[in-house]
Amino acid sequence: MHTSTRTAAALTGLVLALGGAALAAPAARADIPACTQMAAQAGASVTDAVTSACHRGVSGDLQGCVSGLTEAGVPGGAANGACRAAALEPR
Q1: DSSP string for residues in the chain
Q2: What percent of the chain is predicted at pLDDT more than 70?
């Protein structure tokens, strides 16, 4: 019985330690350049409207990002991909 209690305590400590490390890790930065580059590859000029739409993707507003990019002339599929790229960590 004591062995199982110690094992449970050790596992709990490990989970708490790993969870704390995950919380202390720096947040992933968003990748606006990847978003604007994908928009440009789809044929759109990289304007303030495109950059602004990519910023919306960074903040988690995927629908607003896609809408902004399509209004700026980026085809729907490319706009969706660019907005998803905006939320990813830069490479």
Answers
A1: -HHHHHHHHHHHHHHHHHHHHHHHSPPPPP-HHHHHHHHHHTT----HHHHHHHHHHHTT-HHHHHHHHHHTT--HHHHHHHHHHHTSPP-
A2: 64
Residue 50: other Cβ atoms inside 10 A: 25
Picking from 86, 69, 73, the residue whose alpha carbon sits closest to that of residue 32 is 86
What pLDDT digit, counting tens, does each position of 14-46 carry? 444 445 433 333 344 568 999 999 999 999 999
* pTM: predicted TM-score of the whole model, two decimal places: 0.65
Collect contacts of 15-20 with beta carbons under 8 A, ≥24 apart. none
Backbone angles phi, psi at 89, to 5 degrees: -70, 140
In this predicted structure, what is the pLDDT of residue 26? Answer: 38
State the Cα–Cα distance between residues 54 and 86, nearest whole angstrom.
6
